[in-house]
Amino acid sequence: MAEFIEPKVYKIAETQLNDDQVEAWLQGLGGEECLAHVTGSDREKLIELSGRRCYKSFKEGLNPNVTKTRKESEGYHNNIKKQRHGSVMEHASMTFAFENVSRVVTHELVRHRAGAAYSQESLRYVRLTDINMYFPKVFSEFGPEKEAEARKLAKAAMEDAEETQKAFMNIFSEEMDADFNAKKKLTSSFRRFAPIGLATGIIATFNFRTLRHILEMRTSRHAEEEIRLVIDQMAEFLIKDDPYSFGDYVAEDTGDGLIEYTTPHVKV
Questions:
Q1: Are residues 105 and 193 both part of a single domain?
Q2: Last residue in a domain, options 73, 90, 107
Q3: Which of 111, 218, 221, 228 is catalytic?
Q4: Of 1, 83, 114, 205, which has the maximum CB count within 10 A?
């Protein structure tokens, strides 16, 4: 049955260190003492250790050119962002499950290709039954009467789309029961008559450099409403769980119930 839904984001995976191997690696380089002051999440430790490996700056003396090393991680990460040493941020990643998002959102999301991986619900195989959608909050800005009219019209469009899918199923019911190849071809054909606002699901993995880019682009007050709502949810995970990497972002309420994230640091 056609319903209005709200997008939801789940953080389902993240980079973790193999502590024993990290220690063995650093012992081989003579830099294991840095573990006493490398702090943060596993993702942030990996970023810092990767950066230190570039200059062999685990401690003074390993690289004759390095006479002083940072002994606290927050400052180290701030310097990475200030110096635009973004490549080391590509080692750390998070994976999110986006559910009840429209194909409007997924079409925009997958435009972030570098440093990202996607697995989306396939409507070539998944048969459509319920046509659920996100109802944009922007309609409320133009008064309750127009919002009510828009909601009524949207509901009718969703129900009509559901009826269309059911009608296709009735026409080709025998073929859909015949074999999987016919079922796949017909399911793929039916999806062409579903609206772009259809609720779907996608799994996405991003490295941290890409995440900072997405955060700034897609929470902008000029970005599309639903994708802002989705990335705002994602930002809550990032800032809470990896503050060295994302804690520099300043959250500003843009007056529409959504948050814009900006940073004083140069983009990395």
A1: yes
A2: 90
A3: 218
A4: 205
Domain count, the chain: 2
- 206 plus 235 within the same structural domain: yes
Pick the closest to residue 245 from 63, 77, 118 (CA basis): 77
Residues 142 and 155 in one domain: yes
pLDDT band at 26 (very low <50, low <70, confident <90, very high): very high
- What is the tens place of the pLDDT at every residue in 113-126? 999 999 999 999 99
- Model pLDDT for residues 182-241, shown as the tens digit of each residue: 999 999 999 999 999 999 999 999 999 999 999 999 999 999 999 999 999 999 999 999
CATH number of the CATH domain containing 116: 3.30.70.3180
Active site residue 191: no
Residues 79 and 113 in one domain: no
Confidence of residue 267 (pLDDT cuts 50, 70, 90): low
Helix, strand, coil % over all residues of the chain, rounded to 5: 50, 15, 35
Contact 193, 164 (CB under 8 A): yes
Q: With 70 as the cut, is the pLDDT of residue 266 above it?
A: no
What is the torsional sign of CA 73, 87, 15, 248? Answer: positive
Domain that includes residue 197, residue range: 1-15+93-268
Indicate whether 80 and 115 sit together in one domain: no
